[in-house]
Write a structure and sequence with these properties.
Layout lengths: L2 H5 L7 E6 L13 E2 L2 E2 H10 L5 E6 L2 H9 L3 E4 L7 H12 L6 E4 L9 H12 L6 E7 L3 H4 L6 E4 L5 E5 L30 E10 H6 L7 H6 L3 H6 L4 E6 L10 H11 L1
Parallel strand pairs: 1-4, 1-6, 4-5, 7-11
Antiparallel strand pairs: 2-3, 6-10, 7-10, 8-9
């Protein structure tokens, strides 16, 4: 292990797992996209190593990803190709790795090559500091009216202990006195109330391995089917989620060809 990796270690023990599926509809073979001569999933793994993780492992459904990782000294394991979600893929990986139920796993998305290593460590530390929670995630303050009303921007409401009460694509919490009637898209209010505790959810998660082992068997509730938000399954089954508040958004990931060109420019 390099000196940089060793220096990044903290007292929080966690594993960074990177689900990487080749079958993206908008950007096929995305994990293998070239970023300055290095596959994108390897760039992500390099960032994850700087977080101080005990180990960093790419979990993929394709041998080509395994081979690309091994060429760059990154560990990778094969998982089934029929997983419905990345969380299901992590559950299989945890079983393969024989992780103990209380061990902490951070799900690092394979299309975020600019993710700050510190946030990976911090979300793991958040979960470690909340023994009553099985999941930790991240949010930041939301100030723009357009984002508050945008269904593609997921909002989260917290309790007094920074645990999630609800995630939704809807604008929550709703400021009744400021917006007495639902706002039409063509007539959004000019600003959000200054004291509105609106938070934007960031899809970075830390899990206890024991939760991941149970996750595939949890029935999908109606609210998850409607909102298309996987984290609502945990809340519906009484599983507590700690939420780390951060000051600024994370760097954007890669979802489209235009995103890929932007990131390539960053890597030169």
């Amino acid at each position: 292990m390099s000196d940089a990796r060793e220096a990044a270690r903290t007292h929080v023990r966690f594993h960074a797992l990177i689900p990487a599926r080749l079958g993206s509809q908008r950007l096929p073979d995305k994990p293998l996209a070239d970023l300055g001569g290095v596959p994108m999933v390897v760039r992500v793994a390099q960032r994850a190593w700087e977080s101080g993780a005990e180990q960093v492992i790419v979990c993929t459904d394709d041998q080509r990803v395994v081979d690309a990782c091994e060429r760059h000294d990154v560990s990778a394991i094969r998982t089934r190709a029929d997983h419905a979600t990345g969380t299901d893929r992590l559950a299989e990986a945890c079983a393969t790795l024989a992780l103990e139920p209380e061990e902490i796993v951070v799900n690092v998305q394979g299309d975020e090559p600019l993710i700050p290593p510190a946030i990976i460590r911090d979300v793991a530390a958040m979960l470690a500091a909340h023994p009553g929670c099985e999941i930790a995630t991240v949010a930041h303050a939301l100030h723009r009216v357009e984002e508050f009303f945008d269904p593609n921007v997921v909002k989260v409401v917290l309790d007094a202990e920074d645990r999630a009460l609800l995630f939704s694509r809807a604008p929550i919490p709703w400021p009744r006195d400021a917006f007495p009637a639902p706002a039409a898209a063509a007539a959004l209010p000019p600003a959000l109330p200054a004291d509105l505790p609106a938070l934007r959810h960031i899809g970075l998660y830390a899990y206890r391995a024991g939760f991941l082992a149970r996750f595939p068997a949890l029935p999908i509730p109606a609210i998850e089917r409607q909102e298309k938000l996987e984290q609502l399954r945990a809340l519906a089954h009484g599983i507590a989620i700690a939420v780390l508040r951060v000051e600024t958004p994370l760097p954007p990931g890669v979802d489209t060809p235009a995103d890929l060109e932007r990131i390539r420019a960053w890597f030169g």
